[in-house]
């Protein structure tokens, strides 16, 4: 059996699909409409996650994992690709956890959660967007001396940050004044497997609109 990823087009579960593709980890994608929570194959996302959120991952033994950062950690532990997997004994492991946490809290939940919240006022959204420069500056300084978050190879943390940049323009966030970050964004979104998955999600998203 293969683990099942509940996935809505362009949602954060796309980061898990990025990681699985780059790490050569097989996942069964269960497509869903995030507005209605209905799964294409029948049933509801609520059947697996009471919060009705992705990422939600159902493992072979029936265990349910939620939170994108956890799904990404699990996926990378399943990878047999030595250029992708980082074991807990590796000194870089806690840097992996660090950057996953950064993407989850500083970018995903703190910025996207508000900017894409329909009931938030434009004033509130603009104030949240003002948080981006500090975070972009931190990333820009870090990426000025390294091609990826953990060095010279793409990791699960890069999968999360790559997803952020799939939606950053739509969120009204600009990063043109951060050259290292802009170069990183263009490079990761141009990776063949990531580009292919983005195209699939774009098509699915258009069909739901």
From TrEMBL:
CDD domains: GST_C_Beta (cd03188), GST_N_Beta (cd03057). PROSITE patterns: GST_CTER. It comes from the Bacteria. Residues 89-208 form the GST C-terminal domain. GO terms for molecular function: transferase activity. Gene3D superfamilies: 1.20.1050.10, Glutaredoxin. InterPro entries: Glutathione-S-Trfase_C-like, Glutathione-S-Trfase_C_sf, GST_C, Thioredoxin-like_sf. SUPFAM superfamilies: GST C-terminal domain-like, Thioredoxin-like. Keywords: Transferase. This is Glutathione S-transferase C-terminal domain-containing protein. It comes from Erythrobacter mangrovi.
């Amino acid at each position: 059996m293969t683990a099942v990823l509940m996935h809505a087009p362009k949602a954060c579960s796309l980061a898990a699909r990025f990681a699985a593709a780059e790490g050569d980890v097989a996942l069964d994608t269960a497509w869903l409409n995030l507005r209605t929570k209905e799964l294409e194959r029948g049933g509801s996302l609520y059947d697996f996650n009471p919060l009705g959120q992705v990422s939600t991952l159902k493992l072979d033994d029936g265990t349910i994992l939620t939170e994108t950062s956890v799904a990404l950690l699990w996926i990378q532990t399943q990878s047999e690709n030595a250029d992708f997997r980082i074991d807990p004994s590796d000194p870089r492991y806690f840097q992996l956890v660090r950057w996953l946490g950064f993407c989850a809290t500083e970018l995903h939940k703190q910025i996207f959660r508000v900017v894409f919240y329909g009931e938030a006022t434009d004033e509130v959204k603009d104030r949240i967007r003002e948080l981006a420069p500090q975070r972009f500056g931190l990333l820009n300084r870090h990426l000025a001396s390294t091609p990826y978050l953990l060095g010279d190879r793409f990791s699960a943390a890069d999968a999360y940050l790559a997803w952020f940049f799939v939606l950053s323009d739509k969120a009204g966030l600009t990063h043109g004044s951060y050259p290292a970050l802009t170069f990183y964004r263009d490079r990761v979104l141009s990776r063949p497997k990531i580009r292919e998955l983005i195209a699939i999600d774009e098509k699915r998203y258009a069909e739901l609109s």
